[in-house]
Amino acid sequence: MSFFSLGERVSAGVFSHVLYAKLLKDEEMWQILMCDDVPEILEQLAKTLGYKDAGKFIRPEDEGRVQLESRLKIIPLEQSKTFLRTMRGKYKHFLVAWIKRYEASALKRTLRYLMTRRGNRENLRMWLLSLGDTSLPFDLLLSSRDFSDAFEALKGTIYEKPLKEPLKRLASGEENMFHVEMAIDTTTMTNLFDAAYALPYLERRSVLKIIGLYVDLTNVMWIYRGLRFYDLTPEQRLAQLLPRRYKFTRSALRALARSSDVDDFWGNLETSVYGNLFEHPYSKSDISFERDCKRAIREAARRVFRAGRVDFATVIAYLTLLEYEIGDLCTIIEDVRYDYDRRQAALYLIRPLIPEGEIK
Amino acid sequence: MTVVKMLALTLIGPKKEMEKVASLMVLSGGFQPLPLDILLKDKTIRSKITSTSDNPYDELLVKLASIWQAAGEKPPIPVPIQVSPRFSLEIASMQVNSAVRRLELWSSKKEELVEKLEKLEALLFLMRALKERGLNLKDLFDTKYLVPLFAKTSSENFRSLLDSSEEAPLYIESLLSRGGNTWFLGLTVPGYTEGAQKLLDSLYCKRFHMEDLQQELGENSEDSIVKRIDNLKRAINGLEKASSRLLDRNREFFVKLYSSIYTMQRVYELCRGRGELKDLYILSGWIPEDILERVRSDLEKMAPQTVMHVEEIKAMPYSGIKVPTLLKNLPLVSAFQEIVALYSLPSYGEIDPSFFVAVTFCLFFGFMFGDVGHGLMLFLIAVFLQKRKVVSRSMGIVLKSAGASSVLFGFLYGSVFGVEGIIHPLWISPMEDMGDLLAFSIGIGVSIMTLGMTLNMITQYRARDFGRLLFDGRGLAGTFLYLSLAALGYATLKGIVLPGPKWVYWVLPVLLFVVILLRDILARVVLRERSKEKEKLGLYVFEVFHNLLSFMSNTASFVRLAAFALNHVGLSLAVMMLSDMVRNLPGGWILKGTLLVVGNLLIVGLEGLIVFIQTLRLEYYEFFGKFYRGEGRAFRPVTFEGKDLLRNTRRTIK
Q1: What is the value of pTM for the model shown?
Q2: N or C: which end of chain B has fewer CB within 10 A?
């Protein structure tokens, strides 16, 4: 299978190189950051190769910001689906797992809507429709009166088992989505990691450089949050981790989970295998810590892409870069909305940017 | 060739009629709602009107879906269907509630039994596991210095529990793994009971308390527990089968009801912008004038107490809101609407250029690509592509029209597959009458430019901007200036002596130029008009010169009509010559045939594409540039996804 689908993978790799050329240059990103409002962002995006169609059909009388963000967020999914059509076997399986993350995020958004009942349900429905084929019954989910109905709707899907208990808790009065979101993330990321692990050796090695790092850093983030925000005991921090790890050893994760406070955590992280990813852990704020994690994954994807191979790993590297670029664009839209100091805002983007967009 | 008149419609009536009205408006396929908060600028009125977000059909939809879920099936994928006008929320509620009443009873009973079964099974597993280890339940119940924790979780979570329990005073022993779940016994110290409970909770472990198990066990032996488990399983199975039987007996009815409720849910959802004021509802939006009477008569029958308020608004007084545009044209012309929409839809009230585009597009294309053979090939390719749905219906019609026009011009030029002489030209031969061809192309250019400026004058007249109509570079003064310069140029080239003194022909254009330069001053002084748009003087002077230059450049641009007609002949000749050259080689006839086929396909594909692009350029730049602004917003009525539904429903309403 691997040999016979070589042509498809190479063409997908070449195509991802073509698409990579359409990603924003640093100067373009800087210009977008300097915009004063959403229509100006739309105007700037229309001048770029990759996003010239993103603003089409966005009517100024509608909520332009929300529409633009939704439109942008759908781009990686659309492109992933384009690649999916050309893949077979284990590669297809991996891309399906990759695409399921978008479905998971739609599920989280739907469940959040059920919890808060805030926002326009019709807009949410339209957005869900734009996701295309899905294995989840979103129509029924949106009509659910409570979380018991939602669970009934999810029966027969991959989320039935992991969400059974968390949704039961929500139905019986739990007031936050923490457990539900953790369960959804755990399901999708475990599936993704397993699908990456099933790839043939050479491609597995390259893909795991991105996905493995993603899994490891997610575990680090979860330990940090458990320590910093939720006051979890070490055993609880360990219990909530993803059941997969890449470069971290069990003892390293255990040491991190055992951290007595945040300073101790930074110290343990510095001596870990990923210590070099975080320059000055002691001065870290929560937001810059999250940014550094994402920057590390972006850098890993860039390295895989720049290795010069034209194969499946190139596709995944490109899709990762695209996702983070869109993440940055959405951050910029928010920066513009709240009129933050742009130079300061640039520091919190995943892409390292300095004034005028010159590469650091 | 019109932009359909759009009316602002506001419906006010008792809330009990809301549902019928919403349904009618959606099914009419011609209603674009406007959110009330946009429409009502007056904050006092707006504060009294509430917008509702509840949808009464949500609950019914979920309740009905539970029938499939209870039978262990997935609910069907709902589709909008034609709903009877008699179908209402009350009827739907009654039907759903009577269907699910029994089911809800069975469901709660089943839940109770499943809970009991789970507990008994756990008890049995624990008894057997302890027995294997030479212990019994009593030993566990009597534990003094340790706290026993008996629970069940998924095997994945159990692995995490094992891992994390190493960090705590907690001993875990797996008792049984089955169906992806693991039953385990934990032992902890009394001081850590709360911590252990938290840990178990975070891994979604279902704990069975010792006191409950002790109570459940009572005086029962293992055999009697097994018997009770079997009985419970039979009862649960019976309840499941009853749900399946209920579904099987009424499946068709339930599926139809499910789709009807889904349809009505969509009706409610799509007309969300409505407002409510005490017992009244308010619904506003756009409706095309041509369906108003039909909607009015349907409304009178279905919702007699609802009042309609209709008014024509040419421009909304609110920023960002435009009256939507709906174009209505003859079937052939409507295909060319897409060519217009590719540029931009006309704004409401603007001239719809679709008809002119239909005519000029065929003219330009045929002029540049006039060939009976190639035109026929293009026509057949268009038929094939449309049939295979590679191109849309309208694009198919555009391509077919282009092909037909090529055939017509082919007869006029006497050209078949680039060969002139097979048929006698009805008009001119491009290669032999090159001068005439050029002159005609320039003549077409002058006519198109004049037409463009005339349409611009009509637009200015509609806008009541007489200053621009009379004195602008694209108004009357500009048209006269352009035509007089064109006449002067023609006479000079042809050596025609014009009547009267010569200086008049030079002074007139200069005078017209001065009039154009002084447009705003003349409008103020002569017409007593106030300038609507303040334009900077420098910018305006630059614009006037630009207009003057564009007279020349735009007219010259039409030379491409003749150039491409010649190019077509030249390219066809090249293919012919190449095929003649290979004829004497071994297998020459085959080579010649191949070259002819490939060459002609290339001409139709490649040259056809280039001519198509050139035609668009002439339309968009030379023609539209003179009068057309576009920037219209398409009329987007609320509809369902399934268009067949609308067609069926319209028939029913009629």
Answers
A1: 0.56
A2: C
